[in-house]
Design a protein that fits this description.
mainly alpha; Methane Monooxygenase Hydroxylase, Chain G, domain 1; 3 helices; 84% helix
């Protein structure tokens, strides 16, 4: 248990930050799953529109340092390649 006022405040902040970051990470995973589902369905048009929205989500999460920028680039690259392969 935190003994000082500063440590108690830091503990409160950590809980709030964890809750916020978890929701952003969940949003990221959900949007990636939506693209994967559209790819699995074989619908290139739908996959492309969902991918554009997902790219925005991935960039937002990376800008907030929830995930590393290279991981964000890797996700976008792999999703784009999967959509391109649908031809």
């Amino acid at each position: 248990m935190a003994n000082t006022a500063q440590a108690r405040k830091r503990a409160r902040q950590a809980v709030a930050r964890n809750k916020h970051n978890s929701s952003l990470r969940s949003m990221l995973r959900t949007s990636i799953k939506r693209v994967r589902q559209a790819i699995d369905a074989g619908d290139k048009a739908a996959a492309t529109t969902v991918y554009q929205k997902t790219t925005s989500v991935i960039d937002r999460v990376a800008d907030k340092n929830i995930i590393h920028k290279n991981k964000a680039a890797r996700h976008k690259s792999r999703l784009a390649a999967a959509i391109k392969a649908l031809a």
